[in-house]
Amino acid sequence: MLVRNTYNEFIKIIAKPRSYIGLGVLTALIFVILFAMKADGTSFVSFVTASFEQTLSFNGNILNGNLIAFIILQMLIVHIPLLVALVTGDLISGEAAMGTIRMLATKPISRTNIVLSKFIAGAVYTLILTLWLAFLALIVVKWMFGTGDLIVLNSSGLIILQEQDIMWRYLCSFFVAYLALLTVSSLSICLSAFAENSIGPIVSTMGIIILFTIIGSMDVTVFDSIKKFLFTTHMASWRSFFEDPVKMKDIWQSIIILVVHNIVLVAIAIIKFNKKDITS
Amino acid sequence: MDEPIIQVKNLSKKFGTFEAVKDVSFTVNKGDVFGFLGPNGAGKSTTIRCMLSLIAPNSGTIAIFGKNLANHRTQILKNIGCIIEKPDFYRYLSAEKNLEMFARISGRDSSKKEIQEMLEFVGLDGRGKDKVKGFSHGMKQRLGIAQTLLHKPDLIILDEPTTGLDPQGIIEVRNLILRLKTEQQKTVLLSSHQLSEIEIIANRMVIINKGKSMIEGSVDALVNEQDLLLQINVSDYQNAMQAIELEFPALHVKHLHGSIIEMALEKEMVPTINYFLVNKGFSIHSLEPKRKLEDFFMKIIQE
Question: What is the ipTM of this complex?
Fold first, then answer.
């Protein structure tokens, strides 16, 4: 029954117009970035490299597809959670608002399976968004701007990664980015189990992300002990793949924390939904 | 011997401090069209939601098909079709797609042919490809009935199925329920506050009020137990009233309106009163015995 209901959930997601907003907005944003880079990318890169030009000499095509893919990932990973929450935050509460949850809950399928099928459908939708981002960033951008070595500026300075050493880093970073977005999906599904309208869980999800991000960025000792447990702290851990050497220990820690978040959030959603009186 | 299909015992449900259902008990037997009657806010929908596990009761037991609902939920729900208040569908999907999706999780696969036949059965043939967002309330109600019957359940629970329907729609739904009983031997629990509906369709009923079950039994037996109300449209009604009260002091006669008078009496007394008035020279324009569920219902809920 889980498979059958998951199939139904896919049909609903495909048929809902809002599911295409995410893909459309993502495509539009990437093409805005590409247009900006095509028009004035050189001065953008000069602004970043200016402080190093007295000590270093840059040769070749710095403004290449690898750099732009990195810029795209950096810029959009903050905004994609909204696009994910727009669809997943509606999965349970949207049915409550529409009244269809009543029809669904009187069918011979357990409530646990209802939540799990929604989680699976949400996970697949999030994967499609991530794969679309990867396709645009890695295939389309490279096709338009060509390839080359990647120059990354991080807290420890400037890192130059060889062209042949980049693709695996992108693939791994998209996997970690997916895990982070999946946590957002689980959070919004969890909040959706508590709500009776569509907007509440979407706004609450974004509110939590903003709150946790602010806590994570504040240099206040009182928050130091909780920062490492906030999922938002690990949403940017994809960047660790562009360190040299790669800090695998930190990455594994992030993966474990994100996976635990997913399990806990889905468990809360299942418990809440099983105990919920459906009165809508 | 009657085979119980639904057995509700001492069911209670509180929302905060509000007791929506208090100690409700009733039994629905196989083949019954069972009327679940009560005024708005009596606790009908809460009881039905408990029976479909949408709401968890605070106390009491529900057994359906001889199995405890709390322990055999999915097994029981496979064999139930229901409409709760109003049928809600995925507005962005077609009628066919909605039926296909609900059938997929109803415990029995339905072919495209069966879906088409069901749409024809409820009078929605030719509208299957249309999105539900363009459907009127009546069409959604028909689609709801199609969804209820598609997986061929033995027990059908309909909560206010005629709400919002036009008179023609109401008659069609009534006929449909009667066909389900006579042609397919289904057991139907029909919740309604429309007394005429229950009187026409149901063979057994329970009346609930303020969350309590007041009375349960055969519709005919319960209604016939009551005294009859006789309304007579008679010429010179004031003298007619005086004459009846003189001759039959046990009868209390009251003036309703115009030249209509009313009295409560036993069924056997009707010809006697008629004969008496004609013999006394009064002209009787109409004589209407009223022993309707409406009067019985009002009496029960005012107790």
Answer: 0.82
